[in-house]
């Protein structure tokens, strides 16, 4: 009986120690991975994203959009205003639905 209890206790101890070790190893891997230096491709990618972000904030819109792009955008906006009757193209239109008049039909 005592031997059976010892085996049960040993099994429970083994499973809990195993669980704790797995959690600690998993956490350690994440911590060690963050402190490790990025590979050159990842570093270049992150540098380009950060560079684009600063350029975008400084220009207040699209990066490297020249005069030809601005002219094209204004022509398209003018064309859309002409097609759809003018108005503000940036604002979402106010849509009003009316309730349909239903008639009761006798059976």
Automatic annotation (TrEMBL):
It comes from the Eukaryota. GO terms for molecular function: proton transmembrane transporter activity. One of its GO terms (biological process) is proton motive force-driven ATP synthesis. InterPro entries: ATP_synth_f6_mt, ATP_synth_f6_sf_mt. It holds the Pfam family ATP-synt_F6. Its main location: mitochondrion. Keywords: CF(0), Hydrogen ion transport, Ion transport, Membrane, Mitochondrion, Mitochondrion inner membrane, Transport. One of its GO terms (cellular component) is proton-transporting ATP synthase complex. It is found in: Mitochondrion; Mitochondrion inner membrane. PANTHER family: ATP SYNTHASE COUPLING FACTOR 6, MITOCHONDRIAL (PTHR12441), ATP SYNTHASE-COUPLING FACTOR 6, MITOCHONDRIAL (PTHR12441:SF10). Component of the ATP synthase complex composed at least of ATP5F1A/subunit alpha, ATP5F1B/subunit beta, ATP5MC1/subunit c (homooctomer), MT-ATP6/subunit a, MT-ATP8/subunit 8, ATP5ME/subunit e, ATP5MF/subunit f, ATP5MG/subunit g, ATP5MK/subunit k, ATP5MJ/subunit j, ATP5F1C/subunit gamma, ATP5F1D/subunit delta, ATP5F1E/subunit epsilon, ATP5PF/subunit F6, ATP5PB/subunit b, ATP5PD/subunit d, ATP5PO/subunit OSCP. Belongs to the eukaryotic ATPase subunit F6 family. Subunit F6, of the mitochondrial membrane ATP synthase complex (F(1)F(0) ATP synthase or Complex V) that produces ATP from ADP in the presence of a proton gradient across the membrane which is generated by electron transport complexes of the respiratory chain. ATP synthase complex consist of a soluble F(1) head domain - the catalytic core - and a membrane F(1) domain - the membrane proton channel. These two domains are linked by a central stalk rotating inside the F(1) region and a stationary peripheral stalk. Mitochondrial membrane ATP synthase (F(1)F(0) ATP synthase or Complex V) produces ATP from ADP in the presence of a proton gradient across the membrane which is generated by electron transport complexes of the respiratory chain. This is ATP synthase-coupling factor 6, mitochondrial. It comes from Scophthalmus maximus. The lineage of its organism: Eukaryota, Metazoa, Chordata, Craniata, Vertebrata. The gene is ATP5PF.
């Amino acid at each position: 009986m005592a031997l059976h209890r010892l085996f049960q206790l040993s099994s429970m101890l083994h499973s809990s120690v195993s669980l704790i070790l797995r959690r600690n190893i998993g956490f350690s891997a994440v911590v060690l991975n963050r402190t490790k230096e990025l590979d050159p491709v990842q570093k270049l990618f992150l540098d380009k994203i950060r560079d684009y972000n600063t350029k975008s904030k400084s220009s207040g819109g699209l990066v490297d959009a020249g005069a030809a792009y601005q002219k094209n955008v204004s022509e398209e906006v003018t064309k859309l205003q002409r097609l759809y009757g003018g108005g503000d193209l940036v604002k979402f239109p106010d849509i009003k639905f009316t309730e349909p008049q239903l008639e009761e039909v006798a059976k």
